């Protein structure tokens, strides 16, 4: 089976100009294959989040080139990039970013409704399927701000899954959870790669979790210093 | 796609329903005032216009005694090339009569721009009160036509206007005249004509136009009575009042008739230009006040949307991170602004209707306006249409900048800021 590259970068560099011009990313070259579970580790401030924002197309102010599913993101308009995020990328943040005005179910459905590929009923059905995978379908009709942190993070994962994205990115998705919930969420990620061949890219501070991923990208001072293949 | 945006807008709106309500109330208040003010002002305009327009000829043909415009010397071929100076020109001795009026009346009757015509005859007289004579004017009118075209009966406050026709030598006195003469219904009064003849007339009614100048001087009688009073033949008339189908063409028709019939003609617009100005200024004031109120409401919406966007930064960041574009976010907030505008505006229309119908019930009795019993209100649907359009436009403009700001929010900054 030939490996299908989902995400690839060519010499990505990033500068911040305030207060002084500093280079926070230096010639980053990575490529991630379909079905891989990749983690990014490194000291605080080494540029992990910055890289993730670029890879997720939210930050477009960088040098170099980004390919998602073999397609260059260069010169794409804001609306086109939004479409790419909607269709191909799922994002899970450290802090559970849910829309408090909506129910759990509606939170999961929103990106699906935005994609407009399925009818509302189908999207709802799919959302319930995703909630089932994460074991929280009983929370579907609850208001998003009436559930626990661990539950919120699982809802966020369900939301990331709704459009069957090519890749799910997480910025320390377990960072704000206790040991037990962190383990639970990490376990879900492992399941997703194993059972659904889901591609995952995750920034983590937890050595233990990193070791359990297919590949660890180690960063220091804006550079990739090591790519370990554990398996 | 729009359904999704609408549903997101709705949720954001309902999550902050108190603020939203305050914003909507601002719009409601201004639209209510706008509608009420315009309806009331327009009612007032109608009333004042009605005072004049309904009771006045659109074109009045008359004969003015003035020096001839063409002097004989100018007609002469011999002196045509020269400048001829003629000094001390005096008017020729002639009567106020419109000559050949039968032909003019006939021509007017056949003109299909004309709704109707009422001939009239005015006579200077003196009302005799004991030893004192009060100057006055008697209008000899074609009672039925005068009523059909100029709503004569509306100003007859006492008595039946038809008695003028049915009772010979009868008169309807102006209210002011009647008061000065202490005349009651059925009394017989005496008047002196300009030629010195004394005539007795029976009072069959009173009229009140609401204009002191008129009510203190004028009276009405039939044409025949007036002709008898003046001792003139039965085809003597001094005025022809023309009512047109379209009042707008009055100035142009006045000119046309002036040339065609060789009489003087004045149109209603020229005769009453001061009323036109009053009306348009009242309208202008209402619009200005209404729009000012709306602008204030607009600032309210602007503030509330800005606040909402500030509070909803996180939500906007999530929406963007999960694939909503800047323009989607823009549409969401514009939808919120417009919903406030439409909801507040519609409520304003209802309250405006309510408030104006309440005003419509408030008694308004003034001696000057005998036919008016309550404050005048004009329920023109145009005001309601303008009201809702204005509220939508203002809220759109008020929502535009905040929405643009929301659409430009960089999710990375928000997510990092956590
Ligand atoms: N908006 C900004 N302007 C200037 N410098 C910034 C800005 N955002 C981040 N930086 C700097 O860029 C560097 C990389 O930040 P980044 O958030 O990517 O680090 P990180 O690896 O994710 O750290 P952590 O593990 O603590 O989350 C840091 O030195 C940070 O101070
Ligand atoms: Mg970080």
UniProtKB/TrEMBL annotation, chain A:
Protein origin, superkingdom: Bacteria
Keywords associated with the record: ATP-binding, Nucleotide-binding, Translocase, Transport
One GO CC annotation: membrane protein complex
SUPFAM superfamilies in alphabetical order: P-loop containing nucleoside triphosphate hydrolases
Sequence ranges assigned to domain ABC transporter in this UniProt record: 7-231
Cross-referenced CDD domains: ABC_MJ0796_LolCDE_FtsE (cd03255)
Organism: Pedobacter cryophilus
GO function term, MF aspect, one: ATP hydrolysis activity
Stated name of the protein: ABC transporter ATP-binding protein
InterPro entries, alphabetized: AAA+_ATPase, ABC_transporter-like_ATP-bd, ABC_transporter-like_CS, MacB-like_ATP-bd, P-loop_NTPase
Record's keyword annotation contains Oxidoreductase: no
Family: Belongs to the ABC transporter superfamily. Macrolide exporter (TC 3.A.1.122) family.
Automatic annotation (TrEMBL), chain B:
Main location: membrane
Domain MacB-like periplasmic core residue range list: 20-258
Keywords: Cell membrane, Membrane, Transmembrane, Transmembrane helix
Topological category with respect to the lipid bilayer: Multi-pass membrane protein
Swiss-Prot/TrEMBL GO biological process terms: lipoprotein localization to outer membrane
ABC3 transporter permease C-terminal domain: residues covered: 289-411
Assigned GO CC terms: plasma membrane protein complex
Highest taxon, organism lineage: Bacteria
Short name of one Pfam family: FtsX
TM stretches of this protein: 21-44, 284-305, 332-359, 383-401
Protein name: ABC transporter permease
Native organism: Pedobacter cryophilus
